[in-house]
Design a protein that fits this description.
Number of strands: 37
Largest sheet: 10 strands, mixed
Pfam families: Glyco_hyd_65N_2 (PF14498), Glyco_hydro_95_cat (PF22124)
CATH superfamily of the domain at 83-182 and 266-453: putative glycoside hydrolase family protein from bacillus halodurans
Oligomer: single chain
Number of helices: 21
Region (Disordered): 55-83, 180-207, 759-781
Biased composition (Polar residues): 60-69
Radius of gyration: 32 Å
Distance between the termini: 113 Å
Shape: globular
Transmembrane segments: 21-39
Domain Glycosyl hydrolase family 95 N-terminal: 144-406
Strand content: 15-25%
CATH class of the domain at 83-182 and 266-453: Mainly Beta
């Protein structure tokens, strides 16, 4: 009998031999099939890991995301899907991959499909107080959702990267953006892009030598520009005012070629493979307290949940899809660049990690994004090519994505070096996919809450049950009732959330203007949507320090130090022949510090002085000596040095105050000397720098003496005009019918404070800049009344052609500082009407984020404010909105300008009952002004008690009307002011 021998020496039956041969054949065929699939279609993955826990242990939990774990199965279940099931899933994957994915450049699918029908409305979320939430996404097609995402999407970010998450059912469109995705800069052919008739060099030799200079002129042209500047100064001195269209004024305009503009990055699309006809209890929400966006809905008995967040600690954004039953996640993931028309776009896929690289058309800068698709479940199958990943039959799918460019803060001045981001992004992704989702979720939430939970505002709002879009509609129609107070407080916390998401250490300053539009990549130079430093950029940070988000100001300081200062020193030398540094009102990531060619707004040399106020405030709020010595003071000294060198006499070389000349009021009017805004900014900068010298111990005695001498005679920019107004110009030529949006001449009221520390009574020895005319310095009361008169005539900032969000926000803040809650809130309402009600996500990207951030700062000012170190005012603004005072309210975690942390609570009507002061950073005195305290007749001193928390020590304090003066607070101690009936 013919038998083969087994390994044990025993003959093997022929039937067993045939079986072994058959199994070997099947194995070979399988390997060949897998190899062929990998070669032709991408990467094929079969997940065959067994689950050891029982299926009934799997729980779908909507509320507790961090506790979610991979689903499990019965131990006696089948060992994975059958080969037939795998083949079926593989075939489905192949069929799906054959269909081109949606992309940012072609947003519509071949046949538009509708989102499913929504039935059984979801109730409000119960897991947080501060959130945006909605019961529906949209009934629009996928093409239309691409254009509507700016109004409806949730903004998530980790500082460097920001994304807009849509919330759709069949197509989850995630628009990704990176703050350094900019056209222009070094490497751009500036002559080729020059506008007609601007005098640009055109010879071949000059074209080869043409470089990006940040708006500065070549060295050889510097004497000509300085000569033109001097001629204009003389003309201003002779005439008092020069018309903006005079040729000599045009000679001051700069070169904005190569300025560029911020560009969109691309899109990540997650498509449901199996379409749903009807969904129940759909709800999408953005939890401001955790920084997590969630979409939940039900189909039949299945519950689906998607979570989104962008982690600052891990430098990655995350999306997780899961369901209440295993094998229920079926999606296609694709990544697309907004710059495919450059012809440089490349797409790759390595182990289900999609990659996208492209080069920007205008400057050849590298942009790259990666998304890793990780899956959970023993029965799922995924198939991929270099453009997409299809995952079918999984229990959960988690996407990790990150993006970057070749731009770096250290490598972009003076010449741009394109540093390939690939290795950096790969390292981020390797760490992300190697971690546990639950740990990453908790790390993100803890990091976010460390900042977000530091400040609380309770305006007596009732618990909000209305979806955000319905809340906005009711507010617009005047039917919102007591939930109006919730909307106001929500705006404040939303603004704080946006700061955390958009401005973190290591990132660029917050822009928030043009990064979301997909209709771009033209590379046009457009300073109007760059960093606007005559109001927008600064307003973005008004809310930061006082509400515990000083860390978010760090990118602004870094930007000033590493980009604006070195280029701004060139501008000072070339244009003015001066030391120090400056910048004009428009800049970009390439450090554009020279003037631009914009009409009316091209010239504002005091922009640097305004920026330095944020550096000084960063020191005041943090009381960080080393920050002041190593960073803030150096910025301030350089900016002050420029003005010590360039201020001129108003009338002649020996008499009259020192002023800025030429000087422009932003956006309107003629060219004069010493406009109010310029003078106020310079005066404040010089004073702050002199205070800083006392702290750091300046050894440059010549500079200190020159600074002191200049400060003695510099005009403060505070004049009262003929119709009782605070003058915008040194000449009394204000038009009472002017409705211009800018309030530069009221800077000394807010965000400055100069007005409040003027003398409260006139003195014969106190003479203003018009001493040769016999004028006396106006008193504090006269200046405040003049500011009020000016603001009444300026209107609410909603004139046609000048309807900007920042204009209303600034008015609200100034009215709050002036103590008028009625008019401050009218400005708030005007802002909501024009920039909130038509945007369900509260984001008016066309106008920028500065308006929302600024109006939120104004509302905080209406409740509590600290104008200067040693001062805090609580509910001192009169006529606050009724809905804010109908119930008890409170504020917790407000920071003062000397580092104290103040909390307070009040009763119905705004009667303050308790104030708590934690002297966290320094000792000293503090004047606490309380609106409801009044004088002795209203609240006798016997009703006011001051104690040191958890101590029996007697606290030294005094009483001055409505002010409680804490004479000597000790660092690290908490003081409590109690006020009885």
């Amino acid at each position: 009998m013919d038998r083969q021998q087994s390994t044990s020496g025993r003959p093997r039956p022929r039937r067993q031999q045939r079986r072994s041969t058959l199994l070997l054949f099947i194995a070979v065929v399988t390997v060949v099939t897998l190899f062929t699939t990998h070669s032709d279609q991408g990467t094929f993955f079969v997940h065959a890991r067994r689950q050891q826990q029982q299926r009934q242990q799997h729980q779908f939990t909507v509320q507790d995301s961090s506790s979610f774990r991979a689903p499990s199965y019965d131990s006696d279940s089948d060992n994975g899907a059958s080969l037939q099931d795998r083949r079926r899933l593989e075939l489905e994957c192949q069929q799906i991959l054959a269909i081109p994915p949606l992309s940012s450049s072609t947003p519509a699918p071949p046949e538009p499909f509708l989102e499913p029908t929504f039935s059984t409305l979801a109730g409000p979320p119960e897991n947080s107080t501060w959130r945006l939430w909605y019961r529906k996404w949209t009934d629009l097609s996928a093409k239309e959702t691409s254009t509507k995402i700016e109004n409806a999407g949730f903004l998530l970010g980790n500082g460097q990267s920001q994304v807009l998450v849509g919330g759709g059912i069949h197509v989850e469109r995630i628009r990704v953006s990176e703050e350094s995705s900019w056209a222009g800069g070094p490497g751009v052919d500036r002559v080729a892009n020059a506008p007609p008739g601007d005098g640009a060099s055109t010879s071949d030799d000059e074209v080869e030598e043409e470089q990006y200079r940040g708006g500065n002129v070549p060295v050889e042209e510097a004497p000509q520009r300085q000569e033109a500047l001097e001629k204009l100064r003389l003309m201003v001195k002779e005439k008092g005012q020069v018309r903006p269209r005079e040729k000599i004024v045009g000679s001051l305009k700069g070169d904005e070629r190569g300025f560029g503009s911020q560009l969109a990055f691309g899109e990540l699309l997650v498509e449901e493979v199996k379409k749903f006809e009807t969904v129940r209890e759909y709800r999408r929400e953005l939890d401001l307290e955790t920084g997590v966006a969630t979409v939940t809905f039900s189909v039949g008995d299945l519950q689906y949940k998607r979570e989104h967040f962008c982690s600052f600690p891990d430098a990655v954004c995350v999306m997780r899809l899961q369901a209440s039953e295993p094998k229920s996640i079926n999606v296609r993931v694709s990544l697309s660049s907004a710059h495919e028309n450059t012809g440089t776009a490349e797409y790759t896929n390595v182990h289900n990690r999609l990659g996208m690289r492209a080069r920007l058309a205008s400057n050849n800068m590298t942009t790259e994004a990666m998304v890793a698709v990780t899956t959970e479940g023993a029965t799922g199958v995924s198939l991929a090519n270099n453009r997409q990943v299809v995952a079918l039959g999984f229990d959960a799918v988690t996407l990790y994505y990150t993006m970057g460019t070749g731009w770096t803060l250290q490598g972009s001045y003076p010449n741009f070096e394109d540093k390939d981001p690939h290795d950096r992004l790969t390292s981020v992704m390797d760490k992300a996919v190697g971690g546990l989702y639950g740990d990453q979720y908790l790390k993100h939430v803890q990091d976010h809450q460390t900042l977000f939970q530091g400040f609380r505002l309770d305006l007596g709002q009732i618990e909000n049950k209305l979806p955000t879009d319905e809340l906005l509609k009711a507010s617009k129609e005047g039917n919102v009732g007591e939930e109006e107070a919730y909307l106001d407080a929500l705006m404040v916390q939303y603004a704080r959330y946006l700061l955390i998401a958009s401005s973190r250490p290591g990132s660029l300053p917050l822009s928030g203007r043009s990064m979301w539009s997909q209709d771009q990549n033209t590379g046009l130079d457009d300073p109007s949507i760059g960093y606007k430093m005559d109001i927008d950029l600064q307003m973005n940070y008004w809310l930061a320090e006082s509400t515990g988000l000083g860390e978010t100001v760090t990118p602004l300081i870094d930007y000033m130090e590493k980009l604006l200062v070195p280029r701004g020193q060139d501008t000072a030398s070339l244009y003015y022949g001066a030391r120090g540094w400056l910048t004009h009102p428009y800049s970009n990531i390439w450090a554009h510090t020279g003037p631009t060619a914009q009409d009316q707004t091209f010239y504002l040399p005091t922009a640097a002085a305004w920026l330095c106020q944020h550096a000084w405030d960063r020191y005041l709020y943090s009381q960080d000596y080393y920050f002041l010595r190593d960073h803030a003071y150096k910025l301030m000294k350089g900016a002050a040095q420029f003005w010590v060198d360039t201020l001129v006499r108003l009338r002649d070389e020996e008499e009259g105050p020192l002023v800025v000349s030429p000087s422009f009021a932003p956006g309107h009017g003629g060219v004069t000397a010493g406009t109010a805004m310029d003078q106020q900014l310079v005066w404040q900068l010089l004073n702050n720098t002199l205070e800083a010298i006392a702290v750091v111990g300046e050894r440059d005695r010549v500079f200190a003496q020159n600074l002191t001498t200049a400060l003695e005679v510099v005009a403060p920019g505070l004049r009262v005009g003929s119709w009782g107004q605070l003058q915008e110009w040194s000449l009394d030529m204000d038009d009472p019918n002017e409705r211009h949006p800018h309030l530069g001449y009221l800077w000394a009221v807010y965000p400055g404070n100069q007005v409040f520390f003027r003398n409260s009574s006139s003195s014969s020895s106190d003479e203003d800049e018009g001493e040769d005319e016999g004028g006396k310095e106006p008193t504090r009361e006269e200046l405040l009344e003049a500011a009020r008169e000016s603001l009444i005539h300026r209107g609410m900032g909603d004139r046609p052609g000048g309807n900007f969000g920042w204009a209303k926000s600034w008015r609200a803040a100034v009215w709050a500082r002036l103590g008028d809650g009625r008019l401050a809130y009218r400005a708030v309402e005007t802002f909501k009407r024009d920039h909130i009600f038509e945007h369900p996500n509260l984001l008016d990207f066309k106008d920028g984020l500065s308006g929302l951030l600024g109006v939120s700062a104004a509302m905080v000012e209406m409740v509590i404010q600290s104008r200067a170190p040693g001062f805090v005012d609580i509910l001192t603004v009169a006529d606050l909105p009724d809905q804010w005072l109908r119930k008890e309210g409170s504020v917790e975690g407000f920071r003062t300008r000397d580092g104290h942390v103040v909390s307070s609570r009040w009763e119905v009507g705004g009667t303050v009952r308790q104030v708590e002061v934690y002297a966290s950073l320094k000792a000293g005195s503090l004047r606490v002004k309380i609106g409801s305290l009044g004088g002795e007749d209203r609240t006798p001193s016997a009703k006011v008690r001051v104690s040191q928390k958890e101590s029996t020590k007697v606290v030294a304090y005094s009483r001055e009307g409505d002010v409680v003066v804490l004479e000597a607070v000790a660092k690290g101690q908490t003081y409590v002011i109690d006020i009885d009936d």
